[in-house]
Specification:
The chain is mainly alpha-helical. Strands 1-2 form a two-stranded antiparallel sheet.
């Protein structure tokens, strides 16, 4: 497909509403259970997305534009949501995610990136040299990964209850991204 900034922004714009439609007002049995030891709950995933909005995507975009390859991105704390989400309800987290995403997309639009800007290179601490285009595509794919993960976590709650139909339910067989 190739990187199309407007298409990427369209997808990123839809994620908060998608999460809200799927998750708001569900009982905690849907949102606070996980898939077993060392796995995340839906609540954890939303917290992870919030942390990414604060510390990952736009800060890294700015680093690519300002420093290029000369300065590596800050390492991302994949477990920060455990401490940052304490005391919050899922509704509060969904609202916070929607607010942060809106601000970040406004900031991204305000950069008025041109096609040639997307070829700027930055440095990831583990992956090495990456382009701004790759970073932005990853932001969108990251959303899709976690939407998939959320559906899988929720389906897992019925793993015993679907009986023989599990043979037809791919979500019950998916093991990808099952541990953080």
């Amino acid at each position: 497909m190739g990187q199309n900034l407007q298409h990427t922004i369209s997808l990123l714009t839809s994620t908060p509403a998608t999460l809200n439609a799927l998750l708001r007002d569900l009982p905690e049995t849907w949102t606070h259970r996980n898939e077993g030891e060392n796995t995340w709950s839906v609540f954890d995933v939303v917290g992870h997305l919030i942390h990414g909005e604060r510390t990952d995507w736009i800060p890294r975009v700015k680093m690519v534009l300002q420093f290029g390859e000369t300065r590596a991105f800050e390492k991302f704390d994949r477990f920060a949501q455990a401490r940052e989400s304490q005391g919050k309800s899922l509704g509060q987290s969904l609202d916070e995610f929607a607010h942060l995403r809106s601000e970040n997309l406004d900031e991204l639009r305000g950069l008025n990136l041109r096609q040639e800007d997307l070829e700027h290179r930055g440095r990831h601490p583990a992956l090495g040299v990456v382009t701004l285009s790759e970073l932005l595509a990853t932001w969108a794919a990251h959303d899709l990964t976690h939407l998939h993960q959320i559906s899988r976590i929720m389906a897992h709650q019925y793993r015993e209850d679907v009986g023989p139909w599990s043979a037809y339910l791919g979500v019950m067989k998916c093991a990808g991204h099952s541990s953080p």
